[in-house]
């Protein structure tokens, strides 16, 4: 098998890490090494930041918003031209079934299309003030933005973060996760072919404890976007605080779907299951908790169990319901939660099936639905990041709200009811950054602002709102008499 080697992408040039070391990339479907990435260090991050800083005073910094938008639109078209390559690479790198990987390519292209069209539509205001004055506000780029991208959705999260940052005129340094970053590296080639000027995008691969820390601490980075775990997010924010720069954090989730007795179960049940097992449950906004009004609880358990028993788990290339988790390390974490559930006597309502011909070296976990789980159990309170859901009954709105809000997280929530008043009461009472009524988007569309409250983070990406987050407002007061 050919093992492809990737360098860092700095100032539109590919180069090895300054230390000359590489990190092996393994296919989670079979455990085999199929690529190597540069092991970037503090020196490589510094080179990338310098490149981005130079871009701001060079060709990239001189482009008008309209011209920046046209560049992004060309890159979007380039992504779609490479859809087969990116699909296959994402499937091998992350373990996504091919259909899910292809959807991520389309989403990346859509992000770039959206932000390409939005680049010249960010307007300031004029503010009524004293006689003899005209006061206006304008939005300006932060400067150099750092982007720390996780391994679960490399293309989608690159699109929502980088797209908005470039649209506003920032120059970016991206540190993707070492577990899965190959589509981000291929994207650099596509971006260059689309006419992105030198230094506007720089990518340094490596370990979070080395390259990630260096990017978070760098004194010439003006804004950081981080998606990942709560613990790492806390460290990123603490490092950035030393330089007094803003941080957008999208952290973990323990998102609930709340099903009332009057819900349309035919519509709800596919969303209840799919939002938990998509990408093998490795989604920050995964619906890992299902709360069901007691009158229909057993029916929902039965319907979800039937779907679970039909789930097939296998290699990403087989394009089954569920692929492997990203690594054996992640597999061990998920299996640790299931072991605790078994030790504590929790009931398994149903499980999916790992196909017989799945390679033994693959990182496979059988999707599992746990029922009647106590609210304080760790499978309810902690993010599992695997294909595991818990289902619990409730009685009435008050208890539903208490359970839904009863974790440290607040990212997404779904509410299923045909009662219009209840829909709005629940939407207002739930502590979450996004609330879906009679649907569940696991983050929603490109157009919808996304982010959390509590330990799910702060700041918003996606949609038009993200553009404001990647810019600073300047107030200009003119005295003219």
UniProtKB/TrEMBL annotation:
Residues 14-476 form the Aldehyde dehydrogenase domain. Belongs to the aldehyde dehydrogenase family. It comes from the Bacteria. The active site is at 250. The keyword Oxidoreductase applies. Keywords: Oxidoreductase, Plasmid. This is Aldehyde dehydrogenase family protein.
């Amino acid at each position: 098998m050919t093992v492809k080697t990737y360098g860092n992408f700095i100032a539109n040039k590919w180069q090895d890490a300054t230390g000359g070391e590489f990190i092996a990339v393994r296919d989670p479907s079979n455990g085999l090494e199929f690529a190597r990435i540069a092991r970037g260090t503090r020196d490589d991050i510094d080179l990338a930041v310098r490149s981005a800083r130079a871009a701001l005073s060079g060709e990239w910094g001189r482009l008008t918003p309209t011209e920046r938008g046209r560049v992004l639109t060309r890159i979007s078209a380039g992504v779609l031209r490479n859809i087969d390559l990116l699909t296959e690479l994402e499937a091998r790198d992350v373990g996504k079934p091919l259909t899910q990987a292809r959807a991520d390519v389309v989403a990346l292209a859509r992000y770039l299309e959206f932000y390409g069209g939005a680049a010249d539509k960010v307007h300031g205001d004029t503010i009524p003030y004293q006689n003899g004055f005209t006061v206006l506000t304008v939005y300006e780029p932060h400067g150099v933005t750092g982007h720390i991208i996780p391994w679960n959705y490399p293309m989608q999260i690159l699109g929502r973060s980088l797209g908005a940052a470039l649209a506003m005129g920032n120059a970016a340094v991206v540190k993707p996760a070492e577990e899965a970053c190959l589509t981000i590296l291929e994207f650099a080639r596509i971006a260059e072919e689309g006419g992105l000027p030198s230094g506007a995008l720089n990518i340094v691969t490596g370990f979070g404890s080395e390259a990630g820390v260096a990017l978070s601490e760098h004194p010439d980075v003006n804004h950081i976007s981080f998606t990942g775990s709560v613990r790492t997010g806390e460290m990123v924010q603490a490092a950035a605080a030393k330089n007094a720069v803003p941080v957008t954090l999208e952290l973990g989730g323990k998102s609930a779907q709340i099903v009332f007795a009057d819900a349309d179960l035919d519509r709800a049940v596919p969303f209840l299951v799919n939002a938990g097992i998509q990408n093998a449950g490795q989604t920050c906004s995964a619906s890992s908790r299902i709360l069901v009004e007691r009158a229909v609880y057993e029916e929902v358990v039965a319907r979800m169990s039937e779907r679970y028993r039909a789930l097939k788990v296998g290699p990403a290339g087989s394009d089954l319901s569920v692929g492997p988790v990203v690594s054996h390390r992640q597999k061990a974490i998920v299996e640790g939660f299931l072991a605790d559930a078994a030790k504590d006597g929790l009931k398994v309502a149903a499980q999916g099936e790992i196909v017989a011909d799945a390679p033994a070296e693959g990182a496979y976990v059988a999707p599992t639905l746990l029922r009647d789980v106590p609210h304080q159990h760790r499978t309810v309170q902690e993010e599992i990041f695997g294909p595991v859901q818990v289902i619990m009954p409730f009685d009435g709105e008050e208890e539903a709200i208490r359970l839904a809000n009863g974790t440290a997280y607040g990212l997404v929530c779904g509410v299923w009811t045909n009662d219009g008043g209840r829909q709005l009461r629940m939407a207002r009472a739930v502590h979450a950054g996004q609330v879906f009524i009679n649907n569940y988007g696991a983050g929603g569309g490109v157009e919808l602002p996304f982010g959390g409250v509590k330990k799910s983070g702060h700041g918003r990406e996606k949609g038009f709102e993200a553009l404001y987050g990647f810019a600073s407002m300047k107030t200009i007061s003119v005295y003219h008499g």
